[in-house]
Write a structure and sequence with these properties.
Pfam families: GST_C, GST_N_3. By secondary structure, the chain is an alpha+beta fold. It has 15 helices and six strands. Helix content is 54%, strand content 7%. The longest helix has 24 residues, at 326-349. The structure holds glutathione and 2-acetamido-2-deoxy-beta-D-glucopyranose. Glutathione (GSH) binds next to helix 1 and helix 3.
Length: 350
């Protein structure tokens, strides 16, 4: 499997295969088919477009308008278990940021790193220092409770308990969901196979196997999954209350904790985006359940950083077609165009 190197903006273009370049030998610094490149003046992000934690880092990079190169790790194909990638991140997870020789794993650490190292005058700040202690404390609090929600369990659990979900959206449409479930059910085998084939990574992969089996239990057990959904309810209640408390201010300019967009807003935005894609928006905010969150989510979708970090409809179509053989792909594409077309017609009529 050869990871793909793209320019940061490449994947936003429709059918961008021309712009995507496979790693070539000369790009690589290692001899094992890896994609680790030596960039000595700039940032390189290892990520996947549909990864929740990757999307947070992408949004931070775009908010701060920092240029970066990227290397896509093909999670559906197990690219995160390749020996060369385990050298970059022994946890076998995306995202990882490479800044010259330095490797920084974990989305929270990456965002803090960006905030600490790229803070000269005209780079937007995601943790405003000049607004005082109270605002910073609030940012830390909301960021913390939002980041504690286990996004992977939320995502996978929604596939195993479709009765709890109303209208899943792209990219989590039926063929993609089936693919996710198939891979999840076979992940132990996949990890064991990788461990057999790569004795030097065996230890790490077997650790991951243990972790996976515990997670699988939670995901497939309805009671446990419902308690994760309750945790989401609690956090969203607090967020709704916070947003409501700004109603007397000039609301157009207010985000979660401040009148500037902060790290807490990144955590909130990517969570709302994921909940919406999984089909939980009806349960959590639609129809005036949480009107301030509903308004917030509409408003944040207008931000440039959102548009650049969340794959668009064309990207989704391509994914669906790739996952399934042509025939089903075409049917899904046709269906989605009908839905999207219908949506625009209805919007025009209203
Ligand atoms: N704590 C990490 C979590 C990263 C994480 O769980 N990434 C997922 C994708 S969203 C992943 O790489 N999963 C692949 C695997 O565990 O096999 C962070 O915040 O970056
Ligand atoms: C499960 O994974 C193993 C190891 O990668 C593979 O050989 C096998 O074909 C997979 N089985 C299914 C049902 O996908």
């Amino acid at each position: 499997m050869t990871p793909i190197i793209t320019h940061s903006a490449a994947f936003f273009f429709v059918f961008d295969s021309v712009l995507l370049q496979s790693c070539t030998r000369s790009d690589m610094s290692l001899d094992d088919g890896s994609c680790r490149i030596n960039i000595c003046n700039g940032l390189l992000l290892y990520y996947h477009q549909y990864s929740f934690y990757s999307q947070k880092v992408l949004m931070a990079l775009h908010e701060k308008k920092l240029p970066f190169e990227s290397c896509i790790i093909d999670l559906p194909k197990g690219g995160q278990y390749e020996p060369w990638y385990l050298q970059i991140n022994p946890r076998g997870e995306v995202p990882v940021l490479q800044d010259c020789g330095k490797l920084i794993p974990d989305s929270t650490r990456i965002i803090d790193y960006l905030e600490d190292h790229f803070c000269i005058a005209d780079i937007p700040k995601l943790i405003p220092m000049e607004e005082g202690f109270e605002v910073r404390q609030r940012i830390t609090y909301y960021r913390h409770i939002l980041d504690q929600i286990p996004a992977g369990i939320l995502t996978m659990g929604s596939f195993f308990h479709p009765e709890l979900v109303k209208r899943p959206k792209a990219p989590f449409l039926p063929p993609v969901r089936k693919n996710f479930i198939r891979t999840e059910n076979n992940r132990s085998e996949i990890l064991k196979a990788h461990a057999e084939n790569n004795p030097e990574c065996r230890h790490i992969l077997l650790k991951k196997l243990e972790f996976h089996e515990r997670r699988h239990q939670i995901v497939t057990n309805k009671e446990e999954f419902l308690s994760v959904l309750n945790q989401v309810e609690d956090v969203l209640d607090k967020v709704e209350e916070e947003l409501a408390s700004h109603n007397h201010k000039n609301q157009e300019n207010w985000w979660l904790c401040s009148n500037t967009f902060t790290v807490a807003d990144i955590s909130l935005t990517i969570l709302l985006e994921r909940l919406n894609q999984l089909g939980f928006e009806c349960a959590f905010w639609k129809d005036s359940r949480r009107p301030n969150i509903e308004k917030y989510y509409k408003r944040v979708q207008e931000r440039e950083s959102y548009k650049k970090s969340i794959p668009n409809i064309f990207f989704h179509l391509k994914t669906v077609v790739r996952v399934k053989p042509i025939a089903i792909g075409c049917a899904v594409v046709a269906g989605m165009f009908l839905i999207v077309g219908g949506f625009f017609i209805i919007r025009k009529m209203m």
